Each structure stands twice: as C-alpha cells, then as structure tokens.
Inverse folding.
C-alpha cells in the first residue's frame, strides 16, 4: 500500500472516531457510535499491518492475542460497580503503551543511526513523561479504589517540594536527551523519575476526589497518545489523542465545578480524611436531640400517598450494590401511581456518570435520571426524597455557611422536599469531614441501615400496604 | 520544521473538534464516554504494531510486544465494556 493510501485510510479512521463520539450525544445513537468508533480502530490496525516495514507477524499476533484475551475477559466479567477501577486501569495501559512506543521509536532511530530531529526528541521526552505519569498515577488510583491503598489522602512533609524536584529533574533529563539523543539509557531514567512522580502526585488525593483524578488521567492518556503521534509523525494518533485529551479535560472541569473547587485544590489540597474537619461545628451540636430515626413501616406509610418520589443515590448505593432494589422499590411505587425520578449529582460515586450506569444496569429508563439542574426545581413539589448513601452532595451547609469546606458547592436541594428519608449506616461524616444539618432537619428521617438491607425492608413494607 | 507546524495545526484543530463534540455528551453517558474514549486512546496500538513487527533489535521488539499487549487490552476491553454499558441504556 502506498503511503498516500495508508494516510487516507488513517484519515477515514479519524473521521470514524469523531462520528463515533458524536453518537454518544444520545443514548439512542450511542451503541452505533461506539461500533463506528471500533470500526475506525479496526481499519487503522488492518492498514498498519499492511505496512512494509513489518517483517514478522508472530510477535504481533502473540501481543494481540494476549492483550485481546485479557481485555475481553475483563470487559465481560467486570461488575458495573467496579467500573471506576476498570477505567482507571485502562487509562494506565494507554499511558504505558505510549511510553513504550516512544521509547522503542527512540532506540530504533538511534540504532539505525538515523538523523533525529529536535521535534522528534522533544515529542519522545514528552510522551515518556506524560505516559509514565499516567501509567503509575492510574495504578495508584486503581489501588485506592480497590482498597489496596487507603482511600484517605496520603500526605508527608515536603511532599510538594519533592514533587517539584522530581518534575525539574525529569525536565533536566529530558533536556539532556534532546541535546544528546544517542544516550538512550537517559530515556529510561526519565521514565523512572516520571513514574515516581506519577505515584506521588496521586497518593495525596482522597477517595471522593477520584472522579476528578480519573477524568484527568483519562485526559493524560489521550495527550500521551497525541504526543506519540508527534514522535511517529502520524496524524491519526494526533487526532485521536487530542479527542481523548479534550474529553478528559471537559470531564475534569465538570467535576471540579460540581465540587466548587479548583483543579489545583483537588490535586494539591489533600482534602478528606481527618484533616478537613477543623473549624466546622461539632457533630454533637448539630445532631444532639434532633435526629429522628425511622423504620421501614413508617417510611412505607409516607410512600403510600406520595405522588412524587425522588431517589438520590450516592456512593453508598454502589458499595452495597443496591441498584436493583432501588428499581424494585420504584416499580412498586409506580404501580401505586406515584412518579419516581432520580436526582444525580455529578460527583456522586467514584467517576463521572457512575450512578447512571448502575441504575441503567438495573434497567431504570434513562429519561428518569435527572441531573442537578433538572431535578433541583422539582424538590419543592416532591413528597418524599430518598437519599441512599450520599452525604456531602446533599449538605445544605454548602448554601448557608460561607466558611464551610464545601461552601458554594452545588448540591441537590433534597431538604426542600416535604419529607427526606436518609438511608445511611450512621451519622458519620462524608468525605468533607463535616456534620450534615440535613440529618437533624425537621422534615428529615434517618433510616440507619446498609442500603441494600434497608431497601429490601422497604420493599417488603410497601408490599404489605 | 514545516512538518511540525502541520502536525501542530492538526493537533489544535482536533482539540477544538473534541470540545465541540464532547460537550454534547449528556452526563448520563459520562462513564461510557470515558471508557469509549479510553479505547480510542489505545490508538497507540498502531505505533506498537510497527515496533513489534519491524524487528530492529531485541529491545525494540520486546518494547513493541509489551506495548501491543497494553494497547490491545485498552482497545478490546474499552470497546467491549462500552458496548456492554450502552446496551443497558438502550430503550427496552
């Protein structure tokens, strides 16, 4: 195949990627969009395999078989609740692949004693740096989500200074590679430093900030692919990588806005765990004598005459895997004539859209999944709001106390519903480490239980009405 | 240098296209968007295939092989899991 034909095929693949992403604009067209994007990838791979520089296919075949098998098994077996872990890991593989490809390209160019340009070496250094940070950062994010590492921020004195030193030394090594590309060993030194950096910049980020980190790593994996495109002089890689980079950045921005925090604060603030609670009113002063515990029977009676019920899921629903019970309860209520809707906060869960996927798994129609702007005006005319395992995203302090750590964060206004039922195991604070006055509000009832257990009890109680 | 300028032009334009297309994705599909774009970032597979198949040195072949494995996991796993999720969103 001539170079022109190959490049035209690559252009076709790029167009298919764009059309595929365009398909994601609506659930109806999304399945087709994904298939179109996959077709683009297939074309790209097949055309590449026809390249005349390939002299042997055994290694390629082995790699495709091994990688394909791992990917396919993972894709089929992963439970929907573990989707953040899976995406985190896959981001890492993308970054890792870019690092290796750029490294191989450098070694190859030097061993063939080809004249390497500055463009080439700068792009190689950039690929190695971003790719390694993505790989190790993603592995840490994965370990935190899996509970292998603590979900709390891991902080130590001098952390920022050490990170700065690592970044500067990696740039220095990068500069050395650009000035003398023949020392390919320096590339692996760069990769090693960037790897440590990737670990260190991710460990201080707490569990509930994971949606931001995963989005950002998603963006990095795209940027790494794009810079590998600069290394290989391949426009398709540049286009595909930039699309992913843009996508990750948009999601990162949405997540930050939904927490009313800057990206810098998320990355360097180390928010969460014990440290954040300073200055907030004590839990005792907020809760003492005002919290009302409730039972399945009492909630069922409330639901008996409810015309509109809004369910607000949080990470607790994912942990107890209660999405199917949520759907069952909703079905029962709808059969009794109630309208059941779902209010989804952008940062509920551990990745963008986490709650939506879980509820879709339980076959909740997507029209009923409302985002914050759609659902907030409805709470005033809602009989019962049921909060399942969410805390900070429904904390009215965000609206009222300008000194609170979550001040200004957009929240779901569940407190405006006639009655709020909060299913939660205890009064323990959420990620922000502050008490939630909602739990002590006059119209609030606490249902102290695991999400799934509580919903099963509620389903039984509603059936008996 | 001229080649670089063309590449940078494509890069910048592609980012604009990305922003335009992706801001239209509704929040409900943000997880499939991530896994699907993840699969696209596996496009590095193209470079990996060339390194693995060209057999310049043992080192480049080994690097190429590992990169093919990583990128293929990304591509195959990414598209399949996205498909699995999107099927759930499809109206019954």
């Amino acid at each position: 195949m001539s170079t022109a034909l190959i490049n035209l095929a690559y252009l076709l693949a790029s167009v298919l990627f764009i059309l595929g992403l365009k398909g994601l604009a609506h659930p109806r067209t999304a399945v087709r969009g994904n298939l179109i994007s996959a077709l683009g990838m297939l074309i790209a791979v097949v055309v590449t395999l026809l390249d005349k520089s390939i002299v042997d296919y055994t290694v390629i075949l082995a790699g495709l078989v091994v990688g394909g098998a791992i990917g396919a098994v993972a894709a089929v077996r992963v439970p929907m609740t573990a989707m953040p872990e899976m995406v985190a890991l896959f981001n890492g593989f993308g970054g890792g692949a870019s690092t290796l490809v750029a490294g191989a390209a450098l070694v190859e160019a030097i061993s063939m004693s080809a004249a390497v340009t500055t463009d080439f070496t700068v792009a190689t250094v950039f690929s190695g740096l971003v790719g390694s940070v993505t790989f190790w950062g993603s592995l840490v994010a994965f370990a935190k989500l899996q509970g292998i590492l603590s979900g709390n921020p891991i902080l130590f004195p001098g952390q920022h200074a050490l990170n700065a030193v690592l970044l500067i030394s990696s740039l220095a090594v990068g500069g050395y590679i650009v000035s003398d590309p023949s020392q390919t060993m320096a590339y692996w030194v760069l990769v090693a430093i960037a790897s440590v950096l990737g670990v260190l910049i991710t460990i201080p980020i707490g569990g509930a900030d994971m949606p931001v980190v995963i989005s950002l790593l998603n963006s990095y994996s795209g940027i790494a692919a794009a810079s590998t495109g600069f290394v290989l002089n391949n426009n398709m890689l540049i286009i595909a990588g930039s699309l992913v980079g843009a996508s990750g950045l948009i999601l990162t921005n949405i997540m930050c806005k939904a927490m009313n925090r800057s990206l810098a604060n998320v990355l360097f603030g180390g928010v969460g765990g014990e440290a954040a609670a300073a200055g907030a009113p004590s839990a005792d002063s907020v809760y003492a004598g005002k919290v009302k515990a409730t039972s399945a029977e009492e909630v069922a009676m409330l639901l008996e005459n409810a015309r509109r019920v809004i369910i607000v899921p949080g990470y607790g629903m994912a942990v107890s895997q209660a999405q199917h019970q949520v759907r069952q309860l909703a079905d029962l209520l709808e059969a009794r004539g109630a309208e059941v809707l779902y209010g989804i906060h952008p940062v509920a869960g551990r990745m963008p859209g986490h709650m939506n996927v879980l509820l879709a798994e339980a076959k909740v129609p997507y029209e009923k999944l409302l985002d914050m702007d759609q659902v907030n005006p409805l709470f005033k005319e809602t009989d019962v709001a049921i909060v399942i395992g969410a805390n900070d995203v429904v904390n009215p302090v965000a609206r009222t106390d300008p000194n609170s750590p979550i001040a200004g964060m957009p929240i779901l206004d569940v407190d405006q519903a006639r009655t709020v039922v909060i299913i939660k195991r205890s009064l323990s604070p959420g990620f922000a480490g502050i008490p939630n006055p909602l739990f002590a509000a006059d119209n609030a009832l606490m249902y102290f239980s695991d999400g799934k257990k509580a919903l099963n009890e509620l389903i039984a109680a509603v059936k008996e009405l | 240098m001229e080649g670089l300028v063309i590449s940078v032009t494509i890069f910048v334009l592609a980012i604009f296209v990305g922003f335009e297309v992706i801001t239209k994705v509704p929040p409900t599909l943000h997880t499939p968007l991530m896994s699907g774009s993840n699969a696209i970032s596996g496009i590095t597979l193209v470079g990996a295939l060339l390194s693995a198949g060209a057999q310049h040195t043992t080192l480049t072949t080994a690097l190429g092989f590992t990169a093919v494995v990583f990128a293929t996991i990304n591509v195959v796993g990414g598209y399949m899991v996205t498909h699995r999720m999107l099927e759930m969103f499809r109206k019954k």
Observations:
- Chain A has a mean pLDDT of 92.
- The first strand of chain A starts at residue 308 and ends at 313.
